[in-house]
Amino acid sequence: MAKHPIDWSPKNWPRLLYGFFTSFKLATVVLVFMTVVTLLGTLGQVEHGLHSAKEKYFHSFFFTEKIFGVPVLLPGGLLLMILLFTNMVLGALVKVRKRWKGAGLLISHLGMLMLLAGGFVTWAFSTDGYMAMYPGMTSDRVESYREWQLEIVPLSPEGEAEKAWIYPAKLLETMRPDEQRVIHAESLPFDVVINGFSKNATPVPVSAPIAASVTGKEIDGFKLSPQKASKEAEQNLPGCFLEIRPRDGGDPVEAILWAGSYKFDPREKAMPFTFPVGDQLYGALLVKKSWTVPFSVRLDEFIFERHPGVSTARNYESRVTRFEEGQSDKALEIKMNEPMRHAGYTFFQESFGPSGSQPGDEMYSQFAVANNPADQWPLWSLVVTGVGLGVHFVIMLVNFTVRSRQRRSSPPVAP
Amino acid sequence: MPRRGVPTTEPCASGQSGRDGWLSRPLPLAAALLVLLPACGEKDTPGLVERPLSVSEKNFRLVDSSMERFRYTARPAASAGTESGSATPRGLVYDTPEGWTEKPGAAMRDVNFTFGEKGEGECYVARLPGTGGGLAANVNRWRAQMGAAPLSDEEVAALPTRPLFGQPARFVAVDGTFSPGMGSSETFPGYRLVGLILAADAGAVFVKMTGPKEVVEKNGAAFDQFVSSLDVKSN
After folding, report:
1. Chain B, 106-125: which have a CB under 8 Å from a chain A CB?
2. Against a cut of 0.80, is the pTM above it?
3. Does ipTM exceed 0.95?
4. Count of the separate structural domains present in chain B
5. Which residues of B are less than 8 Å from A292 in CB distance?
6. Are residues B85 and B13 in the same domain?
7. B85 — contact with chain A (CB < 8 Å)?
8. For A95-175, where are the alpha helices, taking DSSP H only?
9. Which residues of B touch A165 (CB under 8 A)?
């Protein structure tokens, strides 16, 4: 049978597009690429670390991968999932012939779409951070593992501040090392100039031998040595040069800011670079991005058990009290694999500190705090998919049984 | 038009909601862009945004110098002494190997020893915050001091490890002509450099031993004994 030539005229484009997005071939190609990307992403974690591998392979439209030394452009997980979602909506729900026999498969596809939609919601809307506290401490603030921002604070002589001016992480992290940004705030009597931003850096005293190989400005006996970004993004400590330009014509002030001046223990205090402008003392520092949860948590007791004779942890769990406006206080336990779920947030028992603590030392508990609106969607989607497959099985069974009976009851056909 | 420098406490604009990261990514759905961008358009305001500080964020430690701010502590000269298990003012405890003489701490050195008949061998411990300039840079600085060619990142990553403070530290051993640098133009042929570099959460630690090759070889066991005894003072 002769094939009809394809009509490529613009008026036929919608039909061609519809045909492309609903084709079974597209689904097959996408699933093959998904397998490849999953394999590369899993292997890539060794080279790039978990966060970078997720960004490169799964949160991208395209990425390049060297295969036998040749860079190859491949579709990223995000593009593949969008294509698969579109293909399933159009092909398996819209285009498919609706009949009772196909009800189970329809339900199964709905379940798979829920899984893909859940992935998108997680990617777009979920947050993750941590909350660390010693027994007796109460907090509603969650800190980011990886995102740093610039903070300017007006300080009292005792080192207290009520408010801060923030240069957000999402802007700071886009800075290139050779870039300079002048930031202006009407309510501050000076302009802030940032340059030489490095996602991972170390301040090196000029007296250290390694300082001879560090180029760049020397300020207060230090140079800023940019470092290769760590595979584990949370280990990076950014640094930058800061210049404060008073608008009243006063002399500008320069400093090196380094994330290592931030607090890494709940009892520590961050150490800002301080400078006076007029009669007011100000501080500038790099701090972790943070946000609040709609309730407070107090750590009442941190139970930490070690293996006998060694410092390795055997078990650790936290007893906490949750405070929420309009609700009665609630005492809870947070253990490994037994998180606290409340108001859309999940508190996992994650870690402890300080590092190098010895038996008898007071220790703090660290919770991983995740907020994922689609937290339970994978479970629901599996249930829906399972129900769909069950329905399909029952329909097929009934169909088979009816046909078998019909075959048995029909008169034999003469050979 | 973006509101430059306009103080605001709106969670959407302050970057404090913890959810804003997704807006900086390419959104795959045009519909989502159309619906969400107008609501959070101020996120891209290239200025400072004001917000109140919560109780846990209000207190800062005021320090006088970058030295303190970058977590370098002033290092008093170490008192000479060879007592086993002695604790230094810098919070380190260690055993002094037999035949080694502790010298006063020098700039950038927490612990300082000499050994050998004429004190020609030297071993010291130095600590720096952060990565201390980077593992590869320091390995190659040491190699350059011995006149050896630099190693690639892959070669540095493949260096053997030995425990230091209970963590795997990269072990470096180089033979050659030693040029200590630091203002000195002297060179010492037939030397050996043995060292460990540890990049830990709390900062970088360097243990470096140099001296005539045969003297360093003779003190290899003493070096191992010293390194394995190194610990942080618990109180």
Report:
1. 107-108
2. no
3. no
4. 2
5. 16, 54
6. no
7. no
8. 103-125, 169-172
9. 7, 48-50
